Amino acid sequence: MLNFFSPAMLLLLQEEPTWLAQMQQSAAHPDLSKFLVIGALLFIIGVAGVLTRRNIIVIFMSIELILNAANLNFIAFSRYLYHTGSPNAVAGQIFTVFVIVVAAAEAAIGLGIVIALYRNKETIWVDEIDLLKW
Amino acid sequence: MTLSGYETIFFWIFALAAIFAGLLTVMARNAVHSALFLISSLVSVAALFVLARAEFIAGVQILVYVGGVMVLFLFVIMLVNVGAEERGRDEIFNKQKQVTASLIFCLLLAGGLLYAVNKGYRGLRRLHPATPEMVAEQESIRDRSLPTSATGSSRITPDTEAVGSSLYRYASLPFEIASVLLLVAIIGSVMLARTLRQEASADDLDPEALQLESVTDPELTKLEPQSE
Predict the structure, then answer these.
(1) With b meaning 16 or more CB within 10 Å and e meaning fewer, what string describes B43-72?
(2) What ranges do the domains of chain A cover?
(3) So what's the ipTM on this one?
(4) Which residue does chain B place closest to A26, by CA atoms?
(5) Collapsing DSSP states into helix, strand and coil, what is residue B155?
(6) CB atoms within 10 A of CB B211
(7) Which residues from A are below 8 Å from B124, CB to CB?
(8) pTM here?
(9) Which H or E run contains B52?
């Protein structure tokens, strides 16, 4: 649809291709850089969640968001390498599988720790869990 | 890689959905709402994986993350349910000063990452110049040469086959290590989540600690002989 609209917009404007038309052209054909930007934004949202939230479970969810953003980058680069004719372009997808495995293990252990903490401290606010502080 | 046609529309829909749901994950007051928004973000990212022709990873993402990890999260939220958060009595974010500092840090990080992506991608474009039309042409030629499925209405891609074969050929040692890691994770989480009572009945408690705890809970010492 964007493909169809961008020539129409050019006809309307009757001007030389400006930055607007250029932006439209690049939006109509999302490439590697768009995937990377989406991944970067998801990563930053995850970092903001880890740094600002008080609920330890939401902090764990933000970590999952961060790992997922990294996976998106791996997949995008895997696809890019496939188009450039790299022989081992599948490596990105395989690494993603291992990232998902490690994320699952991390979530299981982390949530076990949360349950043990809640049993002993009766809280899930991270600013009240200060056993290691002196 | 360049998407075109209908792929573009789906790309922008799922990209915006992933980011919006990610933001709501961080902002939601109720932890259950956070978990549900995280699920929608993960599903949107799985759709982006499909657009990048990684169908197997998209399936793994939905099965493992949405079907496994998020269910675990929801169970833990149920176990440690804290009502004060939902009723709006408690602050969900850290103190003002910490939030300001971390947001400034995140903005700096965003600027740095976007600058790096822009700069690096310009270099990559110089290395592999390809117009979107060229890539689309190449893609459609490849798609047309694929074998059709039994019903004849769709084509079979060899992508999943390639992932599977190289996972077992070139990454078989990491694969085995990952299975050991998962075993360690299972045992570890079971050990961490045990109660004092369960530890006592399995005779897995330090005798001094047992003595100390049995002052408050005299049934603990009675549990011990059961295991013998």
Answers:
(1) bbbbbbbbbbbbbbbbebbbebbbeebbeb
(2) 1-30, 32-128
(3) 0.85
(4) B132
(5) strand
(6) 12
(7) 32, 80
(8) 0.85
(9) none
Domain ranges of chain B: 1-81, 96-146
Nearest CB neighbour to A58, from listed B34, B69, B182? B34
Say yes or no for a CB contact (<8 Å) between A98 and B174. yes
DSSP B23-51: HHHHH-SSHHHHHHHHHHHHHHHHHHHHH
Which architecture, in CATH terms, is B1-81?
Up-down Bundle (1.20)
Residue B64 and residue B27 in contact, taking contact as beta carbons nearer than 8 Å: no
Report the alpha-carbon distance of residue B107 to residue B112 in Å, rounded: 9
pLDDT tens per residue, range B151-200: 877 788 888 888 999 999 989 999 999 999 999 999 999 888 887 777 77
> Do residues A52 and B103 touch, judged by C-beta distance below 8 A?
yes
Which of these CATH numbers, 3.30.1440.10, 1.20.1070.10, 1.20.1250.20, 1.10.287.3510, describes A32-128?
A: 1.10.287.3510
Which of A93, A79, A106 is CA-nearest to residue B170?
Answer: A93
Residue B107: closest C-alpha in chain A: A44
Using a CB–CB cutoff of 8 Å, tell me whether B61 touches chain A.
Answer: yes
Which amino acid is present at A9?
A: M
